[in-house]
Amino acid sequence: MSKLIRIGTRDSELALWQAKTVQQQLEHLGHKTVLVPVKSTGDMLLDKPIYELGITGVFTRILDTAMLNNKIDIAVHSLKDVPTLLPVGIVQAAVIKRGNVRDTLVFKDNEEFLSQREAIIATGSLRRKAQWLNRYPTHTIVGLRGNVNTRLQKLEDNDHWDAAIFAAAGIGRIGVRPEEAINLEWMVPAPGQGAIMVTAREDDEEILAICNDINHEETEICTTIERRFLNLLEGGCSAPIGALAFIKNEEVSFQGVLLSLDGSKKIEVTRKEKLGNHHNIAQYAADYVLERGGSRIMNDLEDADKNIQIFSTKNLSEVQRQRFQNVNVESTDFLKISLNRIPKPLLKSPIENVIITSQNAVEAITAIVPKEELQFKNIYCVGRRTKKLIEAKIGKVKHSENYAKLLAEYLVEYLDGTEVTHFCSDIRLDEISQTLEKNHIKVNEVEAYKTILDSEKIDSKVKGIMFYSPSTIAAYLENNEPDNKVAYCIGDTTATEAKKYFEDVRVAKIPTVESVIDLVNETYA
Question: What residue stretches are annotated with the Tetrapyrrole biosynthesis uroporphyrinogen III synthase domain (predicted)?
Answer without folding.
Answer: 350-517
